[in-house]
Each structure stands twice: as structure tokens, then as C-alpha cells.
Write a structure and sequence with these properties.
Number of strands: 0
Strand content: under 5%
Order of helices and strands: HHHHHHHH
CATH superfamily of the largest domain: RNA polymerase sigma factor, region 2, helix turn helix motif
CATH class of the largest domain: Mainly Alpha
Helix content: 55-70%
Number of domains: 2
Radius of gyration: 19 Å
Shape: globular
Largest sheet: none
Length: 184
Amino acid sequence: MVYICTMQPDHIKKYLADHHKEYYGWAMHCCGPDKDIVPDVLQTAYLKIMEKQTMFREQAAFKTWAFVIIKNTALDAVKKRTKERSRIRSEHHLTGDVYVWEPGYLSDERLKEQFFAEGLRLLTERQREILQQVCYHDFSLKEAGQVLNISTGAVSRHYDRAKKRLVTWLHQKGITINNYNGII
């Protein structure tokens, strides 16, 4: 049985506006280091959502469906940008080196960000995606699986491994956690 979207365009626009912050965060994650393309990715994704609204089947939540479209749009944009950079580098014989200036001191907030970024780098890309979906966007494991197109069991395994890896890393840093379920 196929369910056709019963949402009106005005309701979809309102829903997109109401959840823009979450969609923006997800697009930032999906774009990786190419943060400057996030606004274009979101605009393109929103247009796709409005154009493809009749393709939405109410078997999953609208939010889950939108996340999939944003992810696919971001992946396409990142691939395109990577090809452009590769072409430009080869034409001009440039290297991929990037020089970043860092100030001599860091704020406490910046140190916290670096600390958690270091821990997240230990995880696989899939584990980071699942943690973001579950912790930041309040998706269930089933919904995260729908967005990432993997089974709920696979999501559960990745999620559990990520938590265990983070707890081990925290122990190495001198931070003791008795129950890793408490951290996430």
C-alpha cells in the first residue's frame, strides 16, 4: 500500500522553518569541511522537498524523509566541489596543503570543543552520524537507520561501539565513568 503525502505546501514550508536549526546542523555535518556550501545545500534540499512532496510516503516521519534528502543533496555538492578542487589543483599544480593560523591562547570553550572533537575523531564516520542523529536530533535508533539506510540492529551496534570507544578514551584521559549508558 502506498501512502501519498497529505501535507499542504504551506504546512511543509512551516515545518521546514520550524526545524531549520536541526536541518542546518545536519547539513553542516554532512558537508564536512565544506561549511561554506551549507546554505546552498539547504536551499537546494528545500527546493527538492517542495518539488518532491508528492513522493513523500507517510511510512516514515517527514523529518526523517527531509534528513535523507538533505544528506543526499550534501553528498552531491561535496562530490562536485571535490572534483572542482581536484581539477583546479591539477591545472595550477597546487598541493592540498592548507595553512591555519591559531592564536597563542585558547578560551575554555575552545579547549572543550577541541577535547570533544578529539574524542569524536576516534569514531568512524558512521558512528559520528548515528551519535548526531540520536543525541542532537532526538531520533530513535530506528529513525537513524532510516536516514542512513541501514538496519536498526546495525545502528544499535554502531551506537554501542561508539559509546564504549568514548568511555575508553575518557578513562585514558583520567575521567572515570561507571556506566557508559549515562554519557549518551
